[in-house]
Amino acid sequence: MAGVVTAKVSQRGQTSLPAELRHRWGITDGGDVAFIDLGDVALVLPGGMEAAKAEVRRVLAAGAYAEGLAAIDDPDLAV
Fold first, then answer.
1. How far from the centroid of its chain's Cα atoms is residue 10's Cα?
2. Each residue of 6-27: pLDDT tens digit?
3. 59, 66, 71 from 3: Cα distances, Å
4. What is the rounded CA–CA span in Å between residue 38 and residue 40?
5. How far apart are CA 34 and CA 52, in angstroms?
């Protein structure tokens, strides 16, 4: 499993989801992905916005958000 996969964006703003991700996420015949704009980066989640919301709820309920904040080694970013 690759940690980083890149894709090119056309002049019209179109891109293709790399085959490695399509296969792993089970969207080989097409499907939805959600893009969450985090400012300087975007988070891409398979399954569209409803799946993204469910994943955020799961992470927050598991306490991973607080653990993630505690792991930040930048006092300007930690809350």
1. 21
2. 889 999 999 988 888 888 888 8
3. 20, 23, 19
4. 6
5. 7
